[in-house]
Amino acid sequence: MMVALAAMQGLFLNQDLNGYQFRVNNGVPEYKAGADAAWVPFKREPIIEKASFSWAYSPSQTFPAKEGYKIVGLYADITGINSNSAVNINFGISKNLTTGKIAISGQTYVNIMGAFYCIYA
């Protein structure tokens, strides 16, 4: 009775989806065409987060997880170097996409400034 009443009032959308199915999986909308097809996420723009650091010896940053997104890149941009006595400057950059952590290490008597970037997709 309720279905018939709703149909008469025009409350149902077109139910013929030509075999397409839709769902939300871990916060990500997906679709597939046909029973044997693989689920495909809808295309969306990546999110880029920035965390600046200013005159630090060994800066590090951990970017938080975002529901429905995966961390696909971690990058460092060094925009300034201040050294009182160092002539040779060596940097090491470590990153872990699973935990979202990026760090710069290896410098001695050197302050650096810049930013870390995290790309979610």
Number of strands: 9
Query: Which class best fits the helix and strand makeup?
Result: mainly beta
Binned, the helix content reads: under 10%
User: Hey, roughly how much beta strand do the residues contain?
Assistant: over 45%
- Structure annotation, total helices: 1
The description of the largest β-sheet is: 3 strands, antiparallel
What pattern of helices and strands is seen along the backbone?
Answer: HEEEEEEEEE
User: Could you say which overall geometry the principal axes of the C-alpha atoms support?
Assistant: rod-shaped
Q: Major sheet: order of its strands? A: 1-2-3
Compute the gyration radius: what is it? 25 Å
Give the overall pLDDT as a whole number: 80
Distance between the termini: 45 Å
Question: Would you kindly provide a written description of the structure presented here, covering whatever features stand out?
Answer:
- This protein has one helix and nine strands.
- It has 121 residues and is mostly beta strands.
- A hairpin with a 6-residue loop joins β2 and β3.
- The N terminus is likely disordered.
